[in-house]
Amino acid sequence: MLYLIFSIAFAFIMGIGVIIIRMKAQQFPVNEKKIILPPFFMATGALMYVVPYFRLTGLEIIECIILGVAFSTILIWTSRFETKGREIYMKRSKAFPIILISLLLIRTVIKIFISNQIDPGEIAGMFFLLAFCMIVPWRLAMLYKYKKVKKTLVN
Q1: Burial class (CB in 10 A: 0-12, 13-18, 19+), 33
Q2: What pTM was computed for the model?
Q3: Buried-state track 50-85, b at ≥16 Cβ within 10 A, e below 16
Q4: What is the DSSP string of 29-71?
């Protein structure tokens, strides 16, 4: 029970940190590196699956992929770019912090319900995969949108 409370508190602190970082990042121009690199950096976390404690079953992997892609559609829908002069910026979305907090709450509720049935290592592996499957499609969609906006600047 203490592990569950600690992990939920830590997730909320990290979530607030992400919101603050994302809001500050919108004050600076975006480029392809800033869009592409976060999933590559995050991918190193997949090394956790080398340890059997974190490994997932086939069904758990499918569940995480489906949920991650579903959650990413919300982020894709709200991510937009705007130009200021010759620079491209993420457009501020008032819904973005609300969406991130909502996703965090949904994730927390899921965690509370499955924490009695699944080992903490498997839960960690599941939520890493869910987050990765959420970030990759979102970042790919952002890259596509970025290139479309960049093309309009060149013309």
Answers
A1: exposed
A2: 0.82
A3: eeeebebeeebeebbeebbbebbebbbebbeeeeee
A4: ---HHHHHHHHHHHHGGGGGGGSGGG---HHHHHHHHHHHHHH
pLDDT in tens, 5-50: 887 888 889 888 887 887 787 789 999 999 999 999 999 999 999 9
Write out the H or E segment, with its range, that includes residue 147.
helix 120-154
Q: How far apart are CA 21 and CA 137, in angstroms?
A: 20
**Rounded Cα–Cα distance for residues 51 and 119 (Å):** 14
Q: Cα–Cα distance between 113 and 65 in angstroms, integer?
A: 19
Amino acid at 38: P
